[in-house]
Amino acid sequence: MLPVIMTRVVGDEDALVAALKRGDESAFVELVDRHTPALLRVAQGYVPTREIAEDVVQDTWIALLKGIGSFEGRSSLRTWLFAILINIAKNRGVRERRDADLAVVAFTGGTVDPARFRGTDDPYPGHWLPTAAPSPFPDSPEGSVLGQELITVARQGLDKLPERQRVVVTMRDMLGLDSDEVCELLEITAANQRVLLHRGRAAVRQVLEDYLRDTA
Questions:
Q1: Among 9, 36, 95, 195, which has the highest number of CB atoms less than 10 A from its own CB?
Q2: Where are the alpha helices (DSSP H) in the chain?
Q3: Alpha-carbon distance 45 to 164, whole Å?
Q4: What are the distances in angstroms from CA 118 to CA 109, 113, 129?
Q5: Where is the RNA polymerase sigma-70 region domain (predicted)?
């Protein structure tokens, strides 16, 4: 699992929403500072360049300012904010690329050898086989030195995932969103979310294993 960067609402959300509706600039600045890094990371999962992702995030904040008056609190402010971002990213013409990525995943079955997982007739389908489970990462002083390198390699592996896997792993393991939030935002079933998360995590893990083997 990648390092989790949690984005928790500080203080009373109702008061924050009320301040935003009053046009309180300091409340808006606080929200921007808190959520922009996470929004940018999710946007990069949908669009091909960081520059476009920054445009998407900027458009998201503009949309929030225009739409905060209609916010009714049916979901958390964070969930509503991410929903705006995803809708804007989709409107930037990435739906075709996303569908192509999903077609590749369906054809290949993922980037990790399927023989390493339990079959559909097993009581725990999709889990690692005992004989093929990933080796634990080094816990020695040398392993600590590799820590930052492994994070960099993991991010590179994440960036190479098919779009839906990349977005799900980013939301779950980097931003700390729970399964229900991800399913709501991406409009996918819980089962689909689990498959995407498992395949994405497994692929990133494979990249890390290969890196450790090559540097041994």
A1: 195
A2: 13-21, 25-44, 50-67, 77-89, 95-108, 141-145, 147-159, 163-169, 179-186, 190-215
A3: 8
A4: 14, 11, 6
A5: 31-97
Q: Give how far Cα 208 sits from Cα of 6, 69, 80, Å.
A: 23, 46, 34
Per-residue tokens: 198: 């498992």
The Cα 4–Cα 13 span in angstroms is 22
Task: Quick: pLDDT tens for 162-209.
Answer: 888 999 998 998 888 899 999 999 888 988 889 899 989 888 888 888
How far is the C-alpha of 112 from the C-alpha of 86, rounded, in Å?
28
Q: What is the pLDDT of residues 14-61, one digit of tens each?
A: 888 999 999 999 999 999 999 999 999 899 888 888 888 899 999 999
> Beta partners for 128?
117
Q: 212: which 2 tokens?
A: 């450790």
- CA–CA dist 201, 206 (Å, integer): 9
Q: In DSSP terms, which residues pair with 171 in a beta bridge?
A: none
* CA terminus-to-terminus distance, the chain: 22
pTM, two decimal places: 0.60
